[in-house]
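Dear V.,

Thank you for sending over the compound details. I've combined the ligand you provided, pyridoxal-5'-phosphate, with the protein sequence from our construct and run the structure prediction for the complex. I'm sharing the raw inputs here so there's no ambiguity about protonation or stereochemistry in the SMILES, which I know was a concern on your side last time.
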Amino acid sequence: MNDTVARLADVRNRIAVAEKEAGRAPGSTVLIAVSKTFGADDIIPVIQSGQRVFGENRVQEAMGKWPALKERWPDIELHLIGPLQSNKAKEAVALFDVIQTVDREKIAAEIASEVRRQGREPRLYVQVNTGSEPQKAGVEPRDAVAFVARCREVHGLMIEGLMCIPPVDQNPGPHFALLEKLARESGVEKLSMGMSGDYETAIAFGATSVRVGSAIFGAR
Ligand SMILES: *Cc1c(COP(=O)(O)O)cnc(C)c1O
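Below is the predicted structure of the protein with pyridoxal-5'-phosphate bound, written out as structure tokens.
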């Protein structure tokens, strides 16, 4: 077993323990392996050990490696977890199975138009800037419920869940709790929260998917 495959197994075990400790059903958390900055040579062993759900934060970078891998393993599910520029909406809708970073009206409109044009409908999440950090993407917490409703009513987009990235210097628990509350108020079921440093905490707060990069692939 190489290091990456051993680390993947360790993360899977920890997820199972965290689910158990939280009184949650085994397998109720989806592991998204975040492969940004890593190439096919690092990714293939992870696919071969059974992992099928991956996350990338840049459309351009993902376009360079994933089309070939998805052709070889058609059951791969690829998530966009980084900011989406409106001039990349076309490529994002064509490549990704899930877009987790819907965070403004213009992007919602662009995605809706590409969905109509391409007949391909990625599942969608709204990113919430739970820490109201000026440099971070995402809708403000106070706008989240209304934005989810507008995605549905104005743009005809079904939003499946919410996603957040808590401030690096804060205890993530309150941010995870806030995201869970906003999801309930918005009537969406999925919660994408938790990274290498805090995915077990996120599971305790109800994460339905965790986005884990360096704990699997190593330092970037
Ligand atoms: C890079 C990234 C991750 C994974 O971060 P790690 O700390 O390496 O696990 C998760 N979510 C987003 C949005 C990211 O950009």
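A first observation: The two ends are 21 Å apart (CA to CA).

Warm regards,
I. M.
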